[in-house]
Each structure stands twice: as structure tokens, then as C-alpha cells.
Specification:
The protein is an all-alpha fold and about 150 residues long. It has helices at about 5-20, 20-25, 30-45, 55-65, 80-105, 115-125. The protein is about 60% helix and about 0% strand. Helix 3 (about 30-45) crosses helix 4. The radius of gyration is 38 Å and the shape is elongated.
Length: about 150
Amino acid sequence: MTPRVCQQQQYRKASSIALTDLKSRWESMSTTEQNSIAKELEEAQRGDWKALSTENKQAAYYIAFGPHGPRQPILQPGDNTKVFGGVVAVVTISSALFYVIRQNGEEKPLTTTKEWEEATNEYLREQKSNPITGISSEGYKGKGYVTIT
């Protein structure tokens, strides 16, 4: 055996040990280890791709396109229920706060009474507002601005 062949075999053994179960170990590896493995794979890819083992190809693909670093998914499994629970909690709290404020608020404004709405109708008739189809038109039979019964 030539020294070069022996060196390649040692590299393959060391490389295969470093690449076994890379997907599960990648996040826990130090940056130096990650960089060294990436450089080794980059060097190996410069040669004949047919000579690369399946493990090397899978590791190269994972390093290039795997879900780690900036490509890590934003939502993890189970996050949908947390988001839904948070939305329900916020809507419930805001509804309760709205109810409490409305119950403890002052009297209703004068403009929400039936008398005010009837006075608005009279004022608009005097001003001849919307004389073609509205409250000031001839033969108008609608309620006008009275909404409270």
C-alpha cells in the first residue's frame, strides 16, 4: 500500500466517525467542529463525486440545506396551541376589561336617546336635508334617524 492510499483510508474512517448521526449532533457541536467538518466535506466534494460515500453526500446536503441556524423553523411543534391559547387569553381579558369599563362608566350621552334622534329628524326637515330621497322629500315614510325603539 502506498502512503497516499493509507492516508485516504484513515481519512475515510475518521470522516465517517465524525459524520455518523450528524443531524442530531450538529446543534450541540462547537463552531470549530462544525467549521472543520464543513471544510473537510468541501475538500472531499472537489474530487470525484462518485468516490464520495452516501454518508458524505448526506452530510454535505444537511450542512448546506438542513434546518439549522438561519434555516431553523420559526415555529416548533406545539407552538400552534400556545399561539391559540395566547390569542384566546388576550381576547378574553380585553372583553372583560371592556365590560367592566362599560358597567362602571358614566351615564349614556344625550345623543343616544330617542328624544334626541326625533329632534335630529325635525332639525333635518327644517334644513331641508336630502330633499330628493331623504327625510325632507315629499311623502317620506321612513324612520329617519330614529334607531331606538
